[in-house]
Amino acid sequence: MPGSNPSRPLLLLGLIGVMAGIASVSLGSSAVGLLDTLKVLIGGGTELQRTLVLELRLPRTLSAYAVGGLLAVAGALMQVLLRNPLADPYVLGLSGGAAVGALLAMLAGLAGVLVSGSAFAGAMFATLLVFGLAHGRGSWTSSRLLLTGVVVAAGWGALITLMLAMAPARQLPGMLYWLMGDLSHAGNPWPALILLFVVCLLVFPLGRTLNVLARGPLQAAALGVSVRPLEWLIYLLASLLTATAVTLAGSIGFVGLVVPHMLRLVLGNDQRLILPACALAGGALLVLADMLARVIIAPEQLPVGVITALLGVPTFLYLLYRSR
Amino acid sequence: MSVLTADNLIIDVPGREAGSPLNLEIRPGQVWGVLGPNGAGKSTLIHTLAGLRAPRTGQLQVDGNSLAAMKRRDVARQLGLVFQEHHDGFPATVLETALVGRHPWLSPWQMERAEDLAFAEQALEALDVGHLRDRSVDTLSGGERQRVAIATLMTQNPAIWLLDEPSNHLDLHHQVAVMQLLAEQAAGGKAVFMCLHDLNLAARWCDQLLLLYPGGEACWGPADTMLEVSVLERLYGHRLVTVEADGAPVFVPAR
Predict the structure, then answer these.
(1) Is residue A2 part of a domain?
(2) Range with the lowest mean pLDDT among A20-34, A51-65, B178-192?
(3) Of A144, A305, B132, B217, whose CB has the highest number of CB atoms within 10 Å?
(4) pTM of the predicted protein model
C-alpha cells in the first residue's frame, strides 16, 4: 500500500533465505564449517567439501527453496481464488491426483524420473477433472469449485489408501516417504526455480487485480475486472505451481497454508507484496525444514513433510484460535 | 458526462413470466429513485443496468455504445455501483478499501499515485469516515461500512452512479448527509440511480421515480407526477396517510 516501502520486507526475507541456504549446505550428517562452506561457494575448499556442498547439498537446497516458494505462492493464490483463508494448494485434490500417479508408478516398479512424470501427469489430470466438473451445468461459483475439489480429493484419498493396503511391504516405506514429502530424489532444481521467478514477475501486473478480486467477484466485476477468465487463470497457474512442487518433492503440507497467513498478519493483504514475499518466505522455511529433517536423526533422514506439519499444525491452530 | 439508456429492457427475474419493458434514459444531473416492494426486482435491475447480469430482452447503451460489447474496464470508468451487501473476504483497512475504487483508472503496471490517494482520502472525508482510515473494515458498524462503500464509489468517480439502497444501516443524520452528497454529485454532472425503501427520502431527494411492481409491471416519470397516494398504496399493498411537513408531503403508513 502507498506510504510503506515494499522492498524492505522483501529484502529481509531474501536475506533470511540466503542465510538458511548457507546453513543448509554446511550442515548435514557431516558438517562443513561455515568458513569452509563460504570458501567452497566462492570456488575453494577440498575435493570432499566441494562434492558434499556443491553436488549433494546445493541442488537439494535449491530444490527445497523452489518447492517452498511454489507451494506458498500457490496457497496464497488459492486463498484469493476461493476467498477462503483456509484454502491451501492441495485443497482441490491436486496432491491426491499426484500421489495416485506417483504410487501407481512405484507399484509398477518404476523409479526416478518416471515416478515424477507420473506424479505430474496425475496432478494435471486432477486439475482438469475438477476444472471440468466445477464448470458443470449451472452457474460457476467459488464455493462450487471448492466443493468439487474437496469431494474429488476424498476420492483420491480412498484410492491412495487402497494402493497402500495392496502394496508389497518392501515398497511401503518409499510410498510413505513420497506421501509425506521428501526432497532426497528432487533432481534438477532449475526448472522449478525458473518457474517461481517467472510467476513472481507475472504477479506484479496481476497483483492489483487480485486485490480487487479478494473483495468478492461482484465488486471486482463492478470495478472492471473480467472475473471468470481471471479466476481460471489463477486456478491453472496455482495448479501448475503445485504440480511442479509435488513432482519434485512429494506432497509437503502446511507451507501453502501457513506461510501466506503469517505474512498477512505482518504485511497486510496487498497481493503485490504478499505473493513475492510468499515465494521468499516459503523457500526459506522449506530450506530450514529440510535441513532439520536431515540433521535431527542424522545419518537417517525424516520426511520433510513431517517437519513442516510439526511446525505448521501448532501455528495454524494458534491462528485459528485467535481468529473470530 | 454519460447517458445510460435502456431500450425495451426486461430484467431476468427467475420464475417471473414477463413484465413491462423499460425504456429509460438516465442523464447527467438526474437523481433517480427506484421504489417497489421486496422481490420486485430492484437489485436485479441495478445489476442489469451495471452489465453484471444479462437482461432477458432489450438493449443497454452507454453514450450509444452497447454495454454488453464494452470492456469491463471501460464500463467501470463510466459506471459504478454500491451493492446492498458488502463481503470482506480478507480484512483490509478503510483506506485500502476505498482505494480499490481507482482500479479501473490504473494500468496493470501502475502503482496508486499520490492523486489516487488524495481521491480516496477526499471521498472518506466526504462520507465522514476519514477518521477511520486505518481501521480494518471488519471492525466497522453497519452504517460505517455502508459509508465506506459509498466512498469507494466516489473514489471510482464514474459518470453514472448506481446505488442499491444507499441509506441502508445509516442513522438519520447520515441518511440526509448521503442524500445531500448524491444531490450535489448530480448537480455537478453525475447521473444517480438508486433503489430506496424510504418513500420520504425518495420524495424529497429524487427528481425521477421508477415504480417496480412484484409482477414486473413498471412505470416511471418525474417525481412530482409519480407521488400519487393511490399509486403508492397499490405499489406497496398498504394504506398510506399523507401529512404536510417542512413544505412537502410526507407519507406515513396507516396502522
Answers:
(1) no
(2) A20-34
(3) A305
(4) 0.88
